[in-house]
Structure formats: structure tokens, C-alpha cells
Input
Amino acid sequence: MCQAFLPLLRDNGRIVNVSSTAGKIGRYSPELQAHFEDPNLGVPGVTALMERFKTGVREGTYDTDGWPKSTYGVSKAGVTALTIVLARDYEKGLLPADVKAKGLAICCCCPGYCDTDMTSHRGTRSAAEGADTPVWLALEAHPATIQGGFFQDRKVVSFV
Output
């Protein structure tokens, strides 16, 4: 979706992806962590990592391949990695030529464990509390301070 919408964004637009600290890569094998942290990782590389996980699940080898047991967490690691890659590529002028907007800010965040249907209402935060950081990133935070960041509670957090 990000790639589809990038050409439609106007100057000073923002992409704020909702991810999760469940996607932190500290529980991955050192080899997989290195792939996720590779400064040359691009969109095709993120896609290949996600396909590699899907193959491991299909073949029953994902855990011995170094992936955690949380498909939700892996999907959020993919969201965070894609966000970091898109922000870096934008800053380097490496996005496709049809992306013409100036001043884009691309980041992601974790809303926290919210009291929603998804958590069977066991979350410790209200939906409004969970929405605080994404709304702040989208409307208030200075673009230069959020570019490529992963945020929780309006603060940058580590992807590891």
C-alpha cells in the first residue's frame, strides 16, 4: 500500500505505519537480524525476508531457520523494516520517479497493548491512548525528527 500511495502524496505528506514492539528483531537469529539491519536492504529484500518466513512456515522449518514463533510479530517486523527502507530510500532520492512530493516524512509506531477486539479487551490502554502517538506523528511532530523512526509513546524506540 505504501508504494501504491507514494506517488499520490503531496508535499510535506506523511506515512505513519502502525507496527508493534512485538516485531522487534532481538529474538531472531543473528543471521536474520543482520539481514533486517543491512544498510543496503531495499524493498525487494524486505519482501524476500517475508517470503522466506512464509516458506519456513509452510515447510515447518521457520523456528530452526531462526524466526520467532509469532506470525504477528514477524509481520510487524516487516512493516517496520519496510518503513525504515522507504524513509532511507526517500532521503537518498531512490524512490521511483513518479514520487514527486517534497518534504515527506515516513515513520512507524507501536500504539501499545490496547483494549480492543483484537486483544479480546485485555489491553491496558484505551484505543484513544493507543491513537495518541500515530496522530501526533501524522499531524504535529516535526518531519525531520521522525523520518525513518520507530516510535512508542512519542519517543523513538529501537527496532532490536
Q: What stands out?
A: The radius of gyration is 16 Å. DSSP finds six helices and four strands in the chain. The chain has a mean pLDDT of 95. The longest helix spans residues 71-91.
